[in-house]
Amino acid sequence: ILLLGTGRQVQHVDPELRRFIRSTGMKLEAIDSRNAASTFNILNEEGRIVAAALLPYGVSS
């Protein structure tokens, strides 16, 4: 799973990017960065295969 932290608020992810990520066999979850970091830590602790790309929490658009 790829967690995309989109800053302070959840942002729209381009459908073409979603299709590309899906074509690689990964799942994409776009959520605010604070929750993305927390979710990453939980999934990583569980031994799941997870990656995260996080924008700073102060970013709002």
UniProtKB/TrEMBL annotation:
Q: Which InterPro entries match?
A: MTH938-like_sf, NDUFAF3/AAMDC
Instruction: Kindly list the residue ranges recorded as spanning the membrane.
Output: none
> Which is a GO BP term held by this UniProt record?
mitochondrial respiratory chain complex I assembly
Entry's Pfam families?
DUF498 (PF04430)
One cellular component term (GO) for this entry is: mitochondrial inner membrane
Give the PANTHER family listed for this entry: NADH DEHYDROGENASE [UBIQUINONE] 1 ALPHA SUBCOMPLEX ASSEMBLY FACTOR 3 (PTHR21192:SF2), NUCLEAR PROTEIN E3-3 (PTHR21192)
Protein name stated in the entry = NADH dehydrogenase [ubiquinone] 1 alpha subcomplex assembly factor 3
